[in-house]
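Preliminary data (for renewal application), zinc ion complex.
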Amino acid sequence: MIRCSLHNHTYYCDGKSAPEEYVLKALAQGLDTVGFSEHSPFPWEPEAGMGTTAVTAYRQEVLSLREKYKGRIQVALGLEQDILSPPPAKDWDYVIGSVHYVESEGRLYGVDISPEDQARSIEEGFGGDPRAFADCYFRTVAQVVEKTDCDIIGHLDLLVKYNETAPRFDTKSVWYRRMVSDTLDALLPADRIFEINAGAMNRGLRSLPYPGEWTLREMNRRGARITLASDAHEAENVDGGFSRMAAYAKACGYHTAWVLGKNGWKEETL
Ligand SMILES: [Zn+2]
Ligand SMILES: [Zn+2]
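Predicted structure:
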């Protein structure tokens, strides 16, 4: 069983719980490591990311929790760095590199804010063509390591978040699979860790985690390393979906996942 949870959002950005609530819940659940990954500031949409002034307070609070719980649980200080937002110039234990917005002709469009917002993005930015939107999305994701120098590649196929209830992207199509494959071509040489992400599943938006099944099998076939991410927005979900993610990963051919231990990254059996 994997006992490391690194993708967690608190009230410093769009999460509901205090950092300490996460630590207490993680202890109760028997986790070895709990990490925090607030969104980097989004200057174009301040309420969604961490405010620039909140970065210092966030860092201080997580570092003080690390001291307080030393010897009981490892507390890690991370950041979910959006590819388009300026990085706060600080040291982090780990960085998750993510794409939440795409750019077209100088304007930004949300990828997953809501099903309605995604429809608007496709309509207004891409002439109503989901394939053009997907192409822009995956071309942006392909640059995420180069632009953010992330340790973890966040939710690779975030665009399919609403695909079960509002299907817009034909994930079985040749063009979709070609885009995924090209994105993997661009990212795999950097040898970073890819997320299996249960954020949408934990919020009832999907029945399975993402990446989608074909994508995850393809990642496995091509040697991509994975980590399990609850993408929690409340402490209750600090290990939300872990057992289902592990079963899903195993069904797609994985036997191990990567966790952040006291001495850095290590591989553990699922
Ligand atoms: Zn994200
Ligand atoms: Zn997140």
